[in-house]
Each structure stands twice: as structure tokens, then as C-alpha cells.
Design a protein that fits this description.
Strand content: 35-45%
Low-confidence stretches: none
Strand order of the largest sheet: 1-4-7-10-13
Largest sheet: 5 strands, parallel
Distance between the termini: 27 Å
Length: 155
């Protein structure tokens, strides 16, 4: 995605990485790794729904938003390597209002595998760089050592 690119209202499943963000941008109102209704898991092997890579330069990313229409429904098949949102580097990132590992009804567990949100290889992480805002619902960790939020290899 480019700095001002917007992915909105898509149903994406059946790939190992569903959305790759390296140049900034926004992902909102999507069903990633789910059925078109957002009520069932989309199946497949190890899946990363959204990968944010700012390891080269810092860009601004937004995943979700404050309104119900901005909400992403994100699920993985529940295998060990599946991750809802995978963050590499130190982006300026807002994650707000998403349903991760649960269906659009916010009650039905779909799973996300190892982590709902994973920060990795992040250096000089400042509290102002990454904002996991209100209204995120993370559930359904099913892989070994599964976690809602996992921080790895940070300095």
C-alpha cells in the first residue's frame, strides 16, 4: 500500500499474507481470513491477516477506526503460525475498533492462532509510535503459547 492508499470493504482469504502494508495506508471495513458474512473462519493454513513492515522507513498506518463501518474482522485458522496483525519495525500505527479472532457478532470465537497482534524486531519503541486504541476485541488464541498481544525481539 502507498502512503494514502485505502483498502476498504473487501473479503480476503486463502493466502498466507492477506494484506501487506509497507508504504503506509489504511485498512478498514474488511473481512480478513473469514467468510463473506464475517461469521465463520475462512480456513487455510498459517495465515497473517495484516503485515505492517516499516523496517526501512517510518510510515503512518491505520488499521480499523472509531466507527462500526471501519471495523475489520480478522481471523486465522488457529494454527501455531497464524497472526492477526504482524508489526515489523517502528511504524506510526493506530489499531482501533477491530475484531481479532472473533466473528462480526463479537461473540463467536473464530481463532487467530499464535497472536492477535504481534510486535517483532521493533527498536526504539515509543509509546507514541503505536497506539492500540479503544474498541479492539481480541479473542480465540489457540496455538501453543497463544496470546492476545505478543511483543518479541524488542529493544
Amino acid at each position: 500500500l502507498g502512503q494514502s492508499a485505502v483498502i476498504q470493504g473487501l473479503v480476503i482469504r486463502g493466502a498466507t499474507t492477506l494484506v501487506e502494508m509497507a508504504g503506509g495506508g489504511t485498512v478498514r471495513g474488511c473481512y480478513l481470513g473469514t467468510t463473506a458474512s464475517g461469521l465463520g473462519a475462512g480456513g487455510g493454513g498459517q495465515v497473517t491477516a495484516i503485515r505492517v513492515d516499516s523496517s526501512v522507513d517510518v510510515r503512518t498506518f491505520t488499521i480499523g477506526g472509531p466507527s462500526a463501518a471501519d471495523r475489520n474482522v480478522i481471523a486465522g485458522p488457529g494454527t501455531d503460525g497464524s497472526v492477526g496483525i504482524d508489526i515489523l519495525g517502528t511504524p506510526r500505527l493506530t489499531v482501533e475498533g477491530n475484531l481479532i479472532g472473533v466473528a462480526r457478532d463479537a461473540l463467536t470465537v473464530l481463532g487467530h492462532g499464535r497472536a492477535g497482534v504481534r510486535y517483532q524486531a521493533v527498536s526504539s519503541l515509543a509509546a507514541t509510535d503505536i497506539e492500540v486504541g479503544p474498541l479492539n476485541v481480541i479473542g480465540g488464541a489457540s496455538g501453543p503459547g497463544g496470546a492476545g498481544v505478543r511483543v518479541a525481539a524488542c529493544t
